[in-house]
Each structure stands twice: as structure tokens, then as C-alpha cells.
Design a protein that fits this description.
The protein is mostly helical. It contains four helices and no strands.
């Protein structure tokens, strides 16, 4: 009975590969969504801020710089990032006695992506709020 539980908890070779592929696909989709916002949306806001001749908060400047970096290097950075993610996932799934290390890794990656997305939204919201307030006061 104990051996059956141990055997069931340890991932099989094909299960390890399947789980790794699934995890990397989810991470890749999340990363592409974030990259899409950085590449296509942030420049629109940047243009609005430039047209309004606004002094931007430091966070907004960081978001704009991250957007520029992403636009210039996305195709060069995406494959190595996903390959490294796949390697970590595969090693964690194949070497660990339980799925917990792999799950923790997956949650950590998603948490980092969500944190960056939150900072991007906040970085764009702050100057927009300031612009809206100044337009409301001048009208």
C-alpha cells in the first residue's frame, strides 16, 4: 500500500513531460499577454503623456523603459526565457518526490508576471489620474 502511494506520487516520464509542456505553455501565454501590453499599449499612453507635456513619475518612466526594452528584444529574449522555464519545470518534476516544488515554481512565475502587470497598470494610471485632474480643474 505504501509503495503504491509512493509510486503514484512520483511522476512518470510522459507525465513529467506533459506537465512541463502545460506549465510552460501557461507561462508563455501569460508572458506574451504582458509583452503585448508593453509593446502595443504603453507606447499609446507614452504618446498621450508626451503630447500633454507631463512630468512623469519614476514608476511610469520605468514602465516606458521596460516597454522599449521589450519592443527591442522580445524575439531574442522569449525563447531563452521559455527554455529556462521548461528546464526548471522538468528538473523539478522529474527529481522531486512530490509535485510541490514544481507547483511552487509555477506559482512564483505567475506571481512575478502578475506583479509586473500590476506595476505597469499603476505606472500608467498615476499620470492619467493627474492628467484627468488637471483637465477637470482647467475646465
Amino acid at each position: 500500500m505504501m509503495q503504491e502511494q509512493a509510486h503514484q506520487e512520483q511522476p512518470s516520464g510522459s507525465g513529467t513531460l506533459r506537465g512541463t509542456v502545460f506549465t510552460v505553455v501557461v507561462h508563455g501565454i501569460a508572458l506574451l499577454a504582458l509583452a503585448g501590453v508593453l509593446v502595443f499599449q504603453v507606447p499609446r499612453y507614452e504618446e498621450t503623456f508626451r503630447d500633454a507635456r507631463m512630468t512623469l513619475p519614476r514608476l511610469t518612466m520605468v514602465v516606458i523603459s521596460l516597454s522599449s526594452l521589450t519592443k527591442q528584444n522580445l524575439l531574442m529574449l522569449l525563447p531563452p526565457l521559455l527554455a529556462a522555464d521548461a528546464a526548471v519545470c522538468f528538473v523539478l518534476r522529474s527529481r522531486a518526490a512530490t509535485a510541490m516544488p514544481s507547483r511552487l515554481w509555477s506559482m512564483a512565475v505567475i506571481a512575478v508576471l502578475l506583479l509586473v502587470a500590476l506595476l505597469v497598470v499603476l505606472g500608467l494610471y498615476l499620470p492619467l489620474r493627474s492628467l484627468t485632474d488637471s483637465l477637470a480643474h482647467s475646465a
